[in-house]
Every structure is written in structure tokens, then in C-alpha cells.
Give the backbone structure.
Amino acid sequence: MRRITRIATVGIASAALALSATACGGKSSSEGGSDKGATAAIAYDIGGRGDQSFNDAAYAGLEKAEKDLGIKGTEAEPSEGEGDPDKVQRLTELARAGNNPVIGVGFAYAPAIAEVAPKFPKTTFGLIDDTSKTGKNIANLVFNEEQGSYLAGVAAAKVTKSNTVGFIGGVETPLIKKFEAGFVQGVKDTNKSVNVKVQYLTQPPDFGGFSKPDLGKAAAQGQLDAGADVIYAAAGLAGSGSIEAAAKAKKWAIGVDSDQYNQKGLAPYKEYILTSVTKDVADSVYNLIKSVKDGKPQSGEVRYGLAKDGVGLAASNPAYTKLTEVTAAVDKAKADITAGTIKVKTAP
């Protein structure tokens, strides 16, 4: 697998220059990515690979495709403080290199994919966590995050001893507010007397709340000091800081996106990772790559929900599975959501 730490993301001027060069000479920008064989690429979101969460889940899908499908994978990392022109350039270079599909990991890639996809009509572009930009060769890979977060809320309300739990969002965006909404509803539906403290690390256009563990750690410490004994963070790499803080205080943390109990980088804290709200980002990446390889590329909205285990609650921690009253409540909530008895909110 080829990993590109930075694809010429040196600002607006250089991005514009590169795009101008693409338009004026060399290989036509309208050519597809199938002429170089079975290759696929993912362009990471803020925090990059190694975040123990969202990006690592996408990488797992690419890695599986390499092993099972025999494709060659390319990874591209974001640069700090980059803008849309940088993403446009990154996606353009990945497509021109012959990768198909090219997958943007995260809603921040929406404007760039909307600009680049029409120039490469034979290449499939995957856009994770966003449906605002569509096209014939765009697959919108989306999840019912609020449903998994509801289950986390049920678990949190069941295990809290202080009747105070915390939610930490990386950046206050509509996507992360889905996590908040589901979690708060799950807590309150289970025990109305439980107080939920909510905090966001940054506000758009500052997306550092997804990449800075120290911010997550400080926020979690504040909530712990205020009495919280369960903390759920939907904050990418920054969430690892909140897990560290909770573990050092010997309180419960709830992970997100990946099964964080099994993440090597979080091994020192795993004893206190009660569970994780999982999104099957890995399968969404793998399925898209397979669809292209099979000649039947996915396009349009491809949704992963609780009914088909596209989201869920991990049960890797033996301490969690021993809490039979908690797991029974979670299982009942899952069944009720799947049956439509419980309608989970997508906004607070």
C-alpha cells in the first residue's frame, strides 16, 4: 500500500497552479481511473490515519480490500489548516493517478468532490458522512449515528453512579450533533434524573476539535471534576484525550466510530473503555471498492443503520458483557429502534 503523507497541499496558489496545469496539458482530466488496473485511494479526514477512530476505520476497509480483492491501495493525508483547494488538488491527483474509486473520508470533502467528480466521469468517488453533494459517479456513504449513540446513552444511564454523564463533540457540526441528540435521548429515555453535560471543543471553521487530544483531555477533565463518571466523545483523534482522562480517573469512557477497546494506541486505557459506538466505515469502504471492481459501482445514497449493523455498540470489553442488566436494556432498545417503536432524534 502506498501512503502519501501530503500531496502538494501548499496553499491556494499552488493548488490553483496545479489545477491549471491539469487543464492545459498532459492526461485529460475527463479520463477515468480504470486504465491502470485495480487501484483504490482514500483521502483522510482531519487527524489522519492513527486517530484510533474514524480514519482508522476507513483504513481497515482499504486494507481488507487489498487482502481480499487483490487491489492496490493509496492513502493520502490532510495537511493542517488546509482549505477546499487543497482537497480539490489531492482528489484530482489521486484520480489522475488511476485510482478508482477515490474516497473522501468525511463531510469536509463534499465541496471538493462536487468539483472534481464531473471531471472524471469514469471514476467513482466515495463521500463518507455527507449527502449534500450528489452525482452519477458519487456514492454517498452515510450512517445513522444517532441510533448507535442512543444505545450508548442507555448504557451510560445504566452504569452511572453519580447521575451525571458527559458528551464531548469535536466540532459543533450537524453531523456531530446527531451523536449528541441520540446520546442525550438514550440517557433521558432510560433515566430522566441523569444530568448530561455537553461540550464542543471548537466551532467551524476551526476543525481542530477533531485532531487535538489535549483539547479532549481538558474537556473530559472538566466534566469529571463536575461529577461525570461516564464520558462519551465523538471527536476523532481528540477523543483519545478524553478516554485517557476518564481512564486515569478510573471512570468509564465510551469510544466512537471504531471499537476503541481493541485499538492498540489506546491499550493502556482499555480497561475503562466500557463500549464504543461503532460505524461500519470499514465495510462501507470495502463494499464501494468491491462494487467498482465488480463493474457495478455504487452511486447515490448508501445508508448504514442499526437494522443491518451499520452502526452499533461494541461488546469487546468483558466488563461490559458481565453487566447483564445493562446489555439487556441495550438489546431491548436496539430491538425497539429497529422495529420503529423508538424514533431517535437527529438533532438536539
Remarks:
- The first strand starts at residue 2 and ends at 4.
- DSSP finds eleven helices and 13 strands in the chain.
